[in-house]
Design a protein that fits this description.
Oligomer: single chain
Distance between the termini: 70 Å
Strand order of the largest sheet: 5-4-3-6-7
Structural class: alpha+beta
CATH superfamily of the largest domain: SCP2 sterol-binding domain
Domain HTH hxlR-type: 11-109
CATH architecture of the largest domain: 2-Layer Sandwich
Number of helices: 10
CATH class of the largest domain: Alpha Beta
Protein name: Winged helix-turn-helix transcriptional regulator
Number of strands: 7
Pfam family, one: Alkyl_sulf_C
Organism: Streptomyces polyrhachis
Largest sheet: 5 strands, mixed
Helix content: 25-40%
Radius of gyration: 21 Å
Keywords: DNA-binding, Transcription, Transcription regulation
Length: 234
C-alpha cells in the first residue's frame, strides 16, 4: 500500500484531515455511525466508491484507531466493521459539517441518499423549539433496514431497531421520504404514486415533519460589476 500522505501540520485541524481527509474516508465513518456494517453493505450504501478504494480507506481507518473489525453473531457469522469509541466521537463533527453544507447554493438534493444519511439528518435537523409538548413514535423501513424514531420530552431519538406500538410504520426509499418530511412533496402525492407506504396514523407523520428544519441558504455568489461596453464612435 502506498505511503499515507500527510499535511505535516501541527494544528489539530491539519491532523484531523490526515485521519479522515482522504476521499470517501469521512463518508465511510458516517455510514458506521449507527452501528456495524459488513463490507458489502458499505459498498451498497456508497455506490460511487470502488472496491479497492473502500478496502484502502477501511485499512487506513483501522490503522488510525477509528474503525475495527468484529465478528457478527449467528446467524450472520461474518465480519463487519464498526467505529471505535474514539471514532464515534466524530458524530457531532459529521452532523455539524452536514448542516453547514446544507446552506450551499450548489447542494444537489437529488443525489444519492443512504438510509444512514437520512436518519442522521433527522438527528441533525431536529428543532427542539418546535417539539414543545409533541409526542410521536415511528418505525421506518428504509433500504432493507429498520429504524425507530421517537419524539418525546422536546427531544428526538433515531436509531436502528423496531419500535413498539408505533403511531405509524413507514416504508420508503430515503430520498423519497426526505422530500416528504422536509416539505418538497406532499405525503398524499408520495403515497398515491407508490413511493411511500404508511400503516397506521398517516396524520401523525405531520408531527415528524413539523419538528425538522433546514438551515437558511447561504447567499449566492454574485458577479462583479462589469464596466459598460464602450460606444462605437459615430
Amino acid at each position: 500500500m502506498a505511503t499515507r500522505r500527510s499535511y505535516n501540520d501541527a494544528c489539530g485541524t491539519g491532523h484531523a484531515l490526515d485521519l479522515v481527509g482522504e476521499r470517501w474516508a469521512l463518508l465511510v465513518v458516517r455510514e458506521l455511525l449507527l452501528g456495524p456494517k459488513r463490507y458489502g453493505q458499505l459498498r451498497s450504501d456508497l455506490p460511487g466508491i470502488s472496491t479497492n478504494v473502500l478496502a484502502q480507506r477501511l485499512t487506513e481507518l483501522e490503522a488510525s484507531g477509528l474503525v475495527r473489525k468484529q465478528r457478527l453473531p449467528a446467524p450472520a457469522v461474518t465480519e463487519a466493521y464498526e467505529l471505535t469509541a474514539w471514532g464515534r466521537e466524530l458524530e457531532p463533527v459529521v452532523r455539524a459539517l452536514g448542516r453547514w453544507a446544507l446552506r450551499s447554493p450548489h447542494h444537489d438534493r437529488t443525489a444519492h441518499l443512504s438510509a444512514t444519511s437520512f436518519i442522521l439528518g433527522l438527528r441533525t435537523n431536529f428543532d427542539p423549539g418546535r417539539a414543545q409538548g409533541m409526542q410521536g413514535r415511528y418505525e421506518l423501513h428504509i433500504d432493507a433496514e429498520v429504524f425507530r424514531v421517537v419524539i418525546a420530552d422536546n427531544a428526538l431519538h433515531a436509531e436502528r431497531g423496531h419500535q413498539q406500538d408505533p403511531d405509524a410504520v413507514i416504508t420508503a426509499q430515503p430520498s423519497a421520504l426526505a422530500r416528504v418530511v422536509y416539505g418538497g412533496r406532499t405525503l398524499a402525492d408520495a403515497i398515491t404514486e407508490g413511493d411511500v407506504q404508511v400503516e397506521g396514523d398517516i396524520a401523525s407523520i405531520a408531527r415528524l415533519a413539523a419538528v425538522l428544519t433546514l438551515p437558511a441558504p447561504a447567499p449566492s455568489p454574485t458577479r462583479g460589476t462589469q464596466s459598460p461596453e464602450p460606444k462605437n464612435p459615430q
